[in-house]
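From the shared-data thread, chain only:
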Amino acid sequence: MTSFLCKTCGTQFPEADHPPDACPICDDDRQYVPEEGQQWVTYEEVRATHRADIREEQPRLTGIGLTPSFGIGQRALLLESPGGNVLWDCLPLVEEHESFVRGRGGVAAIGISHPHYFTTMVEWAHAFGCPVLVPEADRGWVLRPDPAVELWSGDERALWDGLTLLRLGGHFPGGQVLHWPEGDALLSGDIVQVLPGARRVSFMYSYPMLLPLPTREVERIAAALEPWQFERIYGAWWGRVVRAGGKDAVRRGAERYVRALA
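Structure, as tokens:
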């Protein structure tokens, strides 16, 4: 049997003889099915046509991507910490990155901002013998169930060395970010979206479909981040990084959003 991936979002499905009839993540209002229809690619086909793209973001934080871009085009982040490394967000192809990641100490846990970046999270978990930490609120979007997927409830999940997962919701009910106090940083995926120019952030229910969140949700997200200190915000793509004034960028972003929808 073959492991099929959605060509549009990169989600991996359980092994089967034939591709699924549809991708629930792309059928959802937050994503889309291309005009030419749903397309599938095998894991091996992606391996044959893509290679690793690895870049340092700051000491002990490395971006892990693919070239050429695949699916939504996000890059993952490897955060190195004394108590164990965390892979933040995910992307296809473990093998192309495995030697680098093992050379940096492996992975103790995987945290993913939201289901658009679940992709081959189970492959990564099996390769490194670690759990994938998914908020209970996003249980229904786990399209390849596996014992490695560990569901957690509540709004905060402490890890180690001060690392904390914060469930903010918004883009997805279980949308989460990772607070890294030693790096003075917030790893945000699409939950707090770093905008072009690297000085502003915003928030959306759907980015490609241009569907906003209610102002009360944006105000709630900003309030939930207020107690946490961070100077930098790392978004989901290369170059989407607020390198200074991240806390203020969230405040200003929320205020600007509320004014625009008033």
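The mean pLDDT is 97.
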